[in-house]
Fold this protein.
Amino acid sequence: MTLARSDAAPFIASPSGVPDLETLYRAHAPTVARWAARLAGPLVDVDDLVHEIFLVVQRRLPEFRGEAKVTTWLYRITERVAQESRRKDRFRRWFSGARHLEIQRTMAPPHLTPVDELEQRQSGEMVYRILDRLPGKYRNVLILYELEELSGEEIATLTGLKPATVWVHLHRARARFIAEMKRDSGRST
Amino acid sequence: MKEPTARSKQTHTDERTPIRHRWTAQPSGDSDEALAGALLRSAKVVLPFGTKNLAEVAARLRTRERRLSRKWAWQIAIAVGLLLFGGAVSAAVMHFLRGPSVGPSPPDTQVSMPASGTVPRRHRPVAPPPASAISQVPEPTPVSGGSLELVPGKAPPEPPPAPLANPSALAQESRLLARAIHKLRQERNPGQALAMLDQHRARFGANGALEPEAKVTRIEALLRLGRHDQALGLLDAQSLTAAGVGREMLVARAELRAEKGRCGSALNDFNLLLAAEAPSDLVTERALYGRATCRAQQGDWAGARTDLEHYLARFPKGRFADQARTAIGK
């Protein structure tokens, strides 16, 4: 499980008790990058997003007192930065007039043929088009469960929700996803 | 408080039941879940954040440098978007050039080409342009009833008084300007129109009786020739107020300024237009959308979003409604 992997990373506090940025970065950057790619969707530049996230981490590090798990804290920052990035991206697409920006290669595995890659990109784009029509709380839980393959308990730990709430959100997210998927396929036929 | 029914209680209890199987782990099939699973699987693969990425971002964090190249790409994207406003700008300036009416017109009159009654009296010798001449205007704007106001507080242009000190000079000036307008609007020859306006300037100078009209005709000609910089130069020199047709000049200037990346001064114009209780007309519509564009360009996403929400509330079927909805994800 990805969360377990992230939590297993050694968390080293500086002598003052406050974790230092470099330690956090080395231990958690790959996990944060994966969350960011998942939450923000295929149109983002993950490097830029990770940079933004760790700039926030750096700024807010003195406020972190270890009351929450470090992964929970990092996830919340990632969630907010990714949300802001999606919002900006919508504006960018709007201003540039480009309805279909070139999808970053974050979603495409390198071994695919160009045709496979195109299909994969289109499907990936469709998935995020549907996900973006879901309320944020449902969208993110569905992403964590289906794409990040976290368990309900892990999602609860990460998001700070109660496990029962996670399941409620997930049931509703699934129902909305199916409805939106049908609406999309109805449009395309 | 309404008591939950047995059915809603049951639904809620069902929703709290843990889900045992992921869609993405389901085999292919025709069921909704299987189709959703197949779709989600396609979005599952994420390239690992490798050592190279780690090192790159770490270096940026150390120097706290942002990727300027990306920032510039973003600025260029905005500039492309703003270029689309060019048409609207041309239409705006052409509108006030075309039709400052002397007599009162119905307040709700919304026409895209001037009727003979809307042609200024001093331009009466010129026939109103045919529809074909107007059709080249990218985005026709409605004609409002006010008069052209280049200087704050200046009274609307009145018809010349009956006893003229030098009627022949005014008649000559009027004829020359009328020919320039004819060239511009009917013969669609802005180059020749501009040449005639140069003649006008050479003969009558900056103190000609019809100099304000000549100036706005010049702006129109420059816009038709795509010489936006020069048109903006003339508009920049004007002191404009958010009243009457001056509003339209103001919005045109703001759009031109925005197009040139001068969002700071464009925002001043947009703010001036939107500060007072702006009527729900095309000028307000353009000003709201334009201000959103500038705010977004300056990184004020919250302000841009607020403007777009106001835009959609006031102009749900406006010309930029689709773009506004896309931008705010509605």
Notes: Confidence is low (pLDDT under 50) at residues 1-15, 97-112 of chain A. Chain A has one domain: 2-188. Chain A touches chain B through 64 residues (CB under 8 Å). The CA atoms of residues 74 and 172 of chain A lie 26 Å apart.
